[in-house]
Design a protein that fits this description.
Order of helices and strands: EHEHEHEHEHEHEHEHHHHEEEHHHHHH
Helix content: 40-55%
Number of domains: 3
Largest sheet: 7 strands, parallel
Number of helices: 17
Structural class: alpha/beta
Shape: globular
Length: about 375
């Protein structure tokens, strides 16, 4: 029996993770964590019967503990970290949204637990510091993002022959549009992704292409590759999830229908592949797989992210500023095109600091958010 801790269980990726587990044999969810969606969490508790649960607010934990008396409840960031340390767990699946997820990732790896990571902010903000903690504690980071899972599967022990990584991107809802056409786009239009069903924040990141820039940063650290050896191609069909080019010129690609359940299942069941599929790929019915170079504006965003690689404080700041700007857009405080403008202007104010601890990362995140909020207030 493989015992799993699922963090961020009520989010888009978390709910899909539970759906995957529900269809696998010999898997047991022993802990759940959620934010404010208590109604959905209660449904999950009744279905999976976990031993431990963490929620964001202490008041919710107290109410739930009266209703589910056999479960041990935790709350807040400290509680989130506590359930990553449960001795009987075999794997922690982290799909907590945003920077908050970094605390759980550090705690998991410090505890010597393998980490199935759907929280890219952990790598983007943590950089080599997080990677080194995994090495020191002899535990694995199993990527859940479809692009990084694809690379992981293609490499499969062939890392010494690696030449380039090729990340694919759907192009989001505005592929082919110019800036003039994007000046007054609606929130509804931004969230209408053509191929993936995702949460609001990552949908906005996909529309700005910032998501792909953050994935470049994540790939550089996860696979220990030079930032200039990571390319991006726009692939609207979202069938080829990423590719690996080897030194002999051969390229391997990982393909599947666009569902997060494939990379989720691979991370959960690794190193095995279990006989359960989320749909076979019919290439004859697809007929065409197309690839395009990113346009100038997209390339500018990708380069902005690429340039932070090697200095975790810059990557951390970039992530923080983007989170603030996206949140302001979701609240209707700024326009869509303001997101990247705020990121660029705020990054110009950031100074490098040496990351030696999780406290340094938290400090860097705090300072960057202050710069971003100041620009938004001026807007």
């Amino acid at each position: 029996m493989k015992k799993i801790v699922v963090l961020g269980s009520t989010g888009s990726v978390g709910t899909q993770c539970l759906e995957v587990i529900e269809n696998l044999k010999n898997f047991k969810v022993i802990a759940l964590s959620a934010g404010n969606n208590i109604e959905l969490l209660e449904t999950q508790i009744l279905k999976f019967n976990p031993d431990y649960v963490c929620v964001k607010n202490k008041q919710d934990a107290e109410k739930l503990s009266k209703k589910f008396k056999k479960i041990i409840f935790f709350s807040g960031t400290q509680g989130l970290c506590e359930i990553t340390k449960i001795k009987e767990s075999d794997l922690v699946f982290n799909s907590v949204a945003g920077f908050e997820g970094i605390h759980a990732s550090f705690s998991t790896l410090k505890s010597g637990k393998n980490l199935a990571l759907a929280n890219k902010e952990s790598i983007v903000a943590g950089g080599d510091f997080l990677i080194n903690i995994a090495k020191e504690n002899n535990c694995k980071i199993l990527p859940v993002d479809s692009e990084h899972s694809a690379i992981w599967q293609c490499l499969s022990g062939k890392e010494k022959f690696l030449k380039n990584l090729i990340l694919t991107a759907s192009g989001g809802p505005f592929f082919g549009k110019n800036k003039k056409e994007l000046e007054n786009v609606s929130l509804k239009g931004v969230l209408k992704h053509p191929t993936w069903n995702m949460g609001a924040k990552i949908s906005v990141d996909s529309a700005t292409m910032m998501n792909k820039g953050l994935e470049i940063i994540e790939a550089a650290y996860l696979f220990n590759i030079n930032k200039n050896s990571i390319d991006v191609l726009i692939h609207p069909q979202s069938i080829v999830h990423s590719m690996v080019e080897f030194i002999d010129g051969n390229i391997l690609a990982q393909m599947s229908t666009p569902s997060m359940k494939f990379p989720i299942q691979h991370a959960l069941t690794y190193p095995e592949r279990l006989n359960y599929s989320w749909g076979s790929l019919n290439l004859a019915s697809i007929k065409n797989l197309s690839f395009y170079e990113p346009d100038f504006d997209t390339q500018e965003i990708l380069n902005l992210c690429r340039d932070t690689i090697g200095d975790a404080s810059f990557s951390c700041a970039l992530n923080a500023i983007n989170e603030v700007a996206v949140n302001a857009f979701l609240q209707g405080k700024i326009k869509f095109l303001d997101i990247i403008n705020i990121v660029k202007r705020s990054m110009d104010k950031i100074n490098s600091i040496k990351i030696k601890s999780i406290e340094d990362i938290i400090y860097c995140d705090k300072i960057a958010r202050e710069f971003a909020n100041n620009f938004i207030l001026k807007k």
